[in-house]
Each structure stands twice: as structure tokens, then as C-alpha cells.
Amino acid sequence: DVKVTQSSRYLVKRTGEKVFLECVQDMDHENMFWYRQDPGLGLRLIYFSYDVKMKEKGDIPEGYSVSREKKERFSLILESASTNQTSMYLCASSLQDRVLGYTFGSGTRLTVV
Amino acid sequence: GESVGLHLPTLSVQEGDNSIINCAYSNSASDYFIWYKQESGKGPQFIIDIRSNMDKRQGQRVTVLLNKTVKHLSLQIAATQPGDSAVYFCAETANDYKLSFGAGTTVTVRA
């Protein structure tokens, strides 16, 4: 089975801190995605990457950046965390040009205080 | 069974009844649709999918219906069980690699 692993289940950070959320997949998927999930809003795409060192903005990229130095790893960076970034963050991966096999990690619950 | 005519954020279902979860989509160019189930503490998991050249697809205890005319998607769960309690999301794509998700419906199964 494809595994998408997010390094932390729960994180508490202070306003203004730089925060790194890590995601690793083990099935050689080309595409990787970062979403945030908020009640009533569903999943909103922050950034995605279709290849190493490639990235594209999703629907809500403001306040975030990403890094993909290796195919298996996709990092989400909050340059200066704010309380409105308190959310559940979900990473996903999929094969190139296909959403079938789109697999999610278990999520990281981030609280910014 | 219980049905939801419009998208509602929550659905309470008696164990053994059938459930219907509705989803409206906005992009008329979307040609592939997926239903996901998210249990507490887990990421969304694939349930069933359907392409726009179909209007119905059946899986094990689940059926997805697609009405392209009114841009409406539904998920039917037969004989709902306690393990079906979860948040259900519909997702759509027009380009086959980037998904857009609905707001989700929380299904609670009553014993």
C-alpha cells in the first residue's frame, strides 16, 4: 500500500515562528499536494508539486511556501505563523497525470498561539 | 432510508437504513469525480469514483450517481453500519491530476 507519512500529528507553535511540516511518500509518486482542512470549508489546496524542485500555487498560497528537493519529500513552510493558520494540514500524493491513487496522509493538527 | 435534497453539513442515520449524501459541483468541465471517507484522526480514503461518461457506478454497499445536467453528485450507502460514521467528501477534477473538494458531510449512525 502507498504510504504518505506526515511527521507530526499535533503541533503547537507561537505566533511569528517559522514552521516546517514534512511529508514523505514511499511509492515514487510524481505529484504531491498540501491542503488545509477547516470546518465548513472542506479541503483547500495550498501548493502542489509535479516534479522535484517544481511547485505551483494552489487556491490559498498566501503565507505559505513549499520545498521539494527530493521526489519523496514535500515540505510546507509557514514563514511567520499566525493564528489564522491554525488548521488541519493534509498532504497527498498521486501518479503523474492521474488522480487515481491519490493518497492522503493522516494529517497534522497545527495550533498557533 | 434518509435522503438529503440539498447539501447539508450533517446527516444522522439509523443503523440499517440507507444513506444518501449529496454534492453539487460548479465546474461544467469536470469529468472525473471521487467520493472520499474521512474517519476521525485519519486522512481521507478513496471510496468510489465515476467518469462523466457514466451516470451510475456501484461498489460494495455504495453507489455513486452523477447528473451532469444539474451538476449534482450523490453517494448512496446501503444498510448503513456504525463503521460508516465519518465525514464524506466529494471531489472533482477537469484535468485529471488536481482535485477540488466539497465542504464535506458528517454522517452519524444511530444504534
Description:
The complex is a heterodimer of chains A (113) and B (111). Chain A is mainly beta and 113 residues long. Helices cover 0% and strands 53% of the residues of chain A. Chain A contains no helices and 11 strands. In chain A, strand 4 and strand 5 form a beta hairpin. The model of chain A has no long low-confidence stretch (mean pLDDT 92). By secondary structure, chain B is mostly beta strands. Chain B has no helices and 10 strands. In chain B, the strands form 2 sheets. In chain B, strands 1, 3, 4, 8, 9 and 10 form a 6-stranded mixed sheet that branches. In chain B, strands 2-7-6-5 form a 4-stranded antiparallel sheet, with no helix packed on it. In chain B, strand 8 and strand 9 form a beta hairpin. Chain B is globular, with a radius of gyration of 13 Å. Classes of the chains: A mainly beta (113), B mainly beta (111). Chains A and B meet through strand 4, strand 5, strand 9 and strand 10 of A and strand 4 and strand 9 of B.
Short description:
With 113 residues, chain A is mainly beta.
